[in-house]
Amino acid sequence: MTAVLVINSGSSSFKYQLIEMVGETTLARGLVERIGSEDAHVTHEVIENGSTEKFEQTRSIPNHTEGFAVMLGAFTAHGPSLDEHPPVAVGHRVVHGGARFFEPTVVTDLVKINIQDLSELAPLHNPANVDGITAAQESFPDVPHVVVFDTAFHQTLPPAAYTYALDAETAKRYRVRKYGFHGTSHKFVSEEAARFLGRENSDLNQIVLHLGNGASMTAVRGGESVETSMGLTPLEGLVMGTRTGDIDPAVAFHLHRRADIGVAELDDLFNKRSGIYGLSGLKDMRDLTVKANAGDATARAALDVYVHRLKQYLGGYFFQLGRVDTIIFTAGIGENSVDVRAETLAGLENFGVNVDAARNEQRSDSIRVISTDDSPVTVLVVPTNEELEIARQTLSAV
Ligand code: ADP
Questions:
Q1: pLDDT digits (tens, 9 = 90+) for 213-222
Q2: Contact 344/327 with Cβ under 8 angstroms?
Q3: Pocket lining: 383 vs ligand 1, CB cutoff 6 Å
Q4: From the CA of 189, how far away is ligand 1's center (Å)?
Q5: Is-same-fold flag (3-149; 199-386)?
Q6: Is 150 considered catalytic here?
């Protein structure tokens, strides 16, 4: 038995998953949310023989340390027993590793200081990640803790891809460059696709579309990230659930001068009140496609903007790679939205992309090909599993 506990912590919540690594099966998963409130909510799911039993409770949880104690209580009360499946290590997702971290790293005090130091690049995420690590160390003091960074997979970006054409000294002083995110997912699904196709990853040129609430696209050459759409922060690139993605930076100057909107409000506007939501009032891609298909003009226009940006990036990545073997769709929208996949790849036959409409419409939780058998570019839907990838990397680091 070799179990790994994976933790993904935010400022007022954390998710966890206990994974048995021999068969790579998830034994339990859960979510502790609204930490810091009287009515914090805990969901604990026990997975056995393919069926899931769910337990929920609402109670006061003042901080992450207490949250971990409650999680341990849920394991004791509902299983699986941590005595029978003692985690050999705890793996933590950390959002920003800057240019410093490019491998899964065993946590030391110095590592935590370095993650904290990178908070200026990810003020909402890194401090919360450190709080989660510290609390988890109190609950699991005798096993190694390992951090896996969202940015790590993109450390292979060449300078031409990660450098902004900004005054070089300013960029250097303030560590301004493209870092890229969702790396754990991009790595996982591109490796899964290679394995599924029976090909060497080192021989493949792949384009990965990770389309969830946050969304990013990555060009992967021979298993290495060579271009990606997110930048210094996860705001750049594709249109997302509530984020603008690419926008002329002068829009910020304009709104500041004309409407007297300050930095904090601009941050909020671009990150939380824009994207699909800002365009349509809807946050969920399911609702958007249903309305767009029913003829709602606002929803149609928002979906058109979303797809237009995807095509724009896809075209750019074709030219960066020169030859494309696979296009991979993953995450909530990529795995589930028949419409987004169909509209994004419509009319690309001249570039060797031939989608099989019936295959695209098939629903499944498994990895699958949705292009025709004779399509020069193989299009796949690959379910992502960031927790499993973190667990694999955690194990490799210890
Ligand atoms: P997160 O970035 O929060 O991890 P997910 O990867 O879970 O996001 O993706 C969430 C998105 O997936 C939501 O916008 C949701 O609308 C979309 N989604 C989930 N199921 C479907 C579906 N059947 N059709 C279209 N979109 C879907």
A1: 999 999 999 9
A2: no
A3: no
A4: 17
A5: yes
A6: yes
